[in-house]
Design goal:
Blueprint: H1 2-7, H2 22-50, H3 63-68, H4 77-91, H5 97-123, H6 131-152, E1 160-162, E2 170-172, H7 177-195, H8 203-220, H9 223-229, H10 240-258, H11 267-284, H12 288-294, H13 296-315, H14 325-331, H15 336-356
Antiparallel strand pairs: 1-2
């Protein structure tokens, strides 16, 4: 919005030319979303507390959670989404179809999570929206997103799956692109949702993934850097770095309130929206496998739940004391802050490995 206005005035005011630079606008995007979250965070937390918008705590979870976390406001994802959208609408090129695709994914999955959170609050239980309905909602949103990309993408690489560490290992998925894309979007949104179980645990890894894809989006959309790194150049995707930057800033601002002890929880409103948005970015820039590496912590949390459920159904025994795996370590006596910081360290290492795939080919 502001970008389109300012660039239209470049002929009269040449100094406005600086707004054409992606790096400059990405920096503005980070700062803008950070400031927006800082401004609205405190008042919204106070409002949510007064209106008793508090999520129920799992009764089968650690006793400390029931004692310490009861009464903490939820749906903090509203704060994050407002920060992301404000910054993106200000600094991104709104003529770019990929930007609008991400706005749609962020808002629609955020709305689905919002409904889930509201039902949890209304009925005072941790079940929320029926899992089959939530899954159908995610499928619908994913299908619309993928069909929009198929219709409006102006490049022929959408159906390709690129394998990291290999220069020319490419799989043309054809029609399998749609089920694969659905798997990525639904898997990522649910993975972030499962990880969001301790104060600040999901926020920093999301920020690291977004920061990594800020760089990836920029180099994939730049002919010089993509040629140097021997990765596929995709026109117009560099603009996604603006959205990624807004995610970094919004999550950084939210961490101020979400750091232990959390003043507010992200809720499904935030986790579904953030996970799905990151997945959509990975699909657009054709780095889906790299997303699984950089977001490996989310993969680990999801796999721990799958193993736990499968083991219990097949043998009647549980592998972990509790799933997702962060609760397993809580049950073993680890302090919450210890788990969170160690998981952050794992996320940093995985982000570095994922970024290394850009060069190691």
């Amino acid at each position: 919005m502001l970008f389109n206005l300012l660039t239209s005035l470049i002929d009269q005011y040449s100094f406005l030319n600086v707004f054409k630079y992606l790096t400059f606008r990405t920096g503005l995007s980070v700062v803008t979303s950070l400031i927006v979250v800082f401004i609205i965070g405190g008042p919204l937390i106070k409002l949510f507390s007064e209106k008793m918008i508090t999520g129920p705590i799992r009764q089968d979870g650690p006793i400390d959670h029931i004692i310490k976390k009861s009464g903490t406001p939820t749906m903090g994802g509203v704060i994050i989404i407002i920060g992301i959208l404000s910054s993106t609408l200000l600094w991104a090129d709104l003529n770019n179809i990929y930007v609008w695709t991400l706005i749609f994914v962020s808002l629609s999955l955020g709305a689905l999570g919002f409904l889930d959170d509201m039902l949890k609050i209304k009925f005072k239980n941790s079940r929320g929206l029926k899992s089959s309905y939530k899954f159908l909602g995610q499928i619908l949103i994913g299908v619309i997103t993928l069909l929009a990309l198929i219709k409006y993408s102006n490049h022929g690489y959408l159906y390709n799956l690129y394998f990291p560490f290999f220069k020319n290992l490419i799989w043309d998925m054809g029609l399998f692109f749609i089920p694969f894309g659905l798997f990525v979007i639904i898997g990522a949104s649910n993975a972030v949702n499962l990880t969001d179980g301790l104060d600040g645990l999901a926020t920093v890894p999301v920020m690291l993934v977004a920061l990594s894809f800020t760089l990836i989006s920029y180099v994939v959309g730049n002919t010089i850097f993509s040629e140097y790194l021997q990765i596929q150049y995709i026109p117009d995707v560099g603009e996604l770095s603006i959205f990624c930057g807004s995610v970094v800033g919004a999550c950084l601002g939210f961490l101020w309130y979400n750091a232990p002890p959390a003043k507010i929880f992200m809720g499904d409103t935030g986790s579904l929206s953030l996970g799905g948005s990151l997945a959509a970015i990975a699909i657009i820039v054709k780095h889906e496998i790299v997303l699984a590496i950089i977001g490996g912590l989310f993969v680990l949390e999801t796999v721990s739940v799958i193993i736990q459920v499968a083991s219990f159904k097949l043998t009647g025994k549980r592998i972990f004391k509790m799933a997702p795996i962060h609760h397993h370590f809580e049950k073993k006596g680890w302090a919450e802050s210890t788990i969170v910081i160690r998981f952050w360290i794992i996320a940093i290492i995985l982000a570095l490995i994922g970024l290394a795939t850009l060069k190691l080919r």
